[in-house]
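Input record, target 12 of the design panel.
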């Protein structure tokens, strides 16, 4: 006849600290393992595997975005630890786990390396499975982005969006510069650094789509007797060739002449007209290119203007991760 192993509160607490599992789950695991600590951990892992398998097709649309930068600000990482509900995503233990994972990610070269890295005697991937069993929701790494540069800064918006940005050199007040630009990235969602990074086929397709939308809007505005929207011929600086700009200037001069403006004052008016032409025909750049966006703290400047005000420094790379 077998005897029941007595499990002490100290043993339960030790297992709880090691795994993060609840008190009752730890006690049950220790009883099943007949008091063997290592076997109890294995029991909890198997429970996690079962829960993970059942919830594999669930959508982990909530979670926490984390950004970490190393001590000398030469490398940064941004990850998203996903879960199923906002309730879990805001839990202090979950946020602490996300932070720990961020520290490990910072020392990993890639997502695969990160998932294979050690986390208290198991891999990160195994830890996620274990915690799926503990929490009862699917946990996964939804995003992993890493950059290296002469200086890297970061910004996290209420654990929902994380941004990292790299600069070519360390200048005076680079910390403030990095924070402001990382905040810009988080807030405005740029996808490219410059219009020079756009694929011509993408620009052509986007131009056609945007013009179609405006023309359809204009049909309704015309029906209602309202002012029609301007239909741009272009949407990116990549389309504004020297020939296009020369023609725009010629058109502006012809307009001034038709308005009867004295030619001697054209030089004062033309720069504003050309600036307006470029602004009207670079909407894609303003939306998606970091350097061409209006700076959120001073919309009279572009991000490029703001960065150049700090001296000889350039943005070399940036990444942004979100729960969505």
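The sequence produced for target 12 reads:
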């Amino acid at each position: 006849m077998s005897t029941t192993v007595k499990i002490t509160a100290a043993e339960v607490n030790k297992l709880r600290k090691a795994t993060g599992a609840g008190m009752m789950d730890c006690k049950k695991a220790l009883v099943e393992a007949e008091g063997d600590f290592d076997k109890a951990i294995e029991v909890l892992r198997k429970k996690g595997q079962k829960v993970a398998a059942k919830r594999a097709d669930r959508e982990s649309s909530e979670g926490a975005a984390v950004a970490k930068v190393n001590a000398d600000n030469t490398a940064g990482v941004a990850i998203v630890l996903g879960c199923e509900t906002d309730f879990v995503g805001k839990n202090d233990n979950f946020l602490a786990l996300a932070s720990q994972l961020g520290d490990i990610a910072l020392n990993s070269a890639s997502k695969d390396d990160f998932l294979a890295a050690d986390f208290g005697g198991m891999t990160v991937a195994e830890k996620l499975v274990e915690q799926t069993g503990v929490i009862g929701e699917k946990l996964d790494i939804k995003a992993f982005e890493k950059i290296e540069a002469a200086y890297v800064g970061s910004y996290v918006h209420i654990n929902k969006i994380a941004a990292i940005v790299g600069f070519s050199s360390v200048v005076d007040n680079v910390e403030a510069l990095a924070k402001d630009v990382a905040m810009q990235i988080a807030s405005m969602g740029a996808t490219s650094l410059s219009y020079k990074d756009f694929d011509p086929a993408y620009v052509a397709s986007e131009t056609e789509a945007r013009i179609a939308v405006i023309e359809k809007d204009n049909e309704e505005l015309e029906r209602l007797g309202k002012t029609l929207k301007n239909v741009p011929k272009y949407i990116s600086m990549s389309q504004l060739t020297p020939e296009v700009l020369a023609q725009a200037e010629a058109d502006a001069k012809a307009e001034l002449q038709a308005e009867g403006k004295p030619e001697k004052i054209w030089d004062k008016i033309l720069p504003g007209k050309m600036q307006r032409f470029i602004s009207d025909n670079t909407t894609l750049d303003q939306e998606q290119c970091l350097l061409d966006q209006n700076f959120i703290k001073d919309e009279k400047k572009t991000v490029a203007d703001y960065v150049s005000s700090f001296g000889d420094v350039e943005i070399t790379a940036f990444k942004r991760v979100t729960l969505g």
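The CA atoms of residues 48 and 130 lie 5 Å apart.
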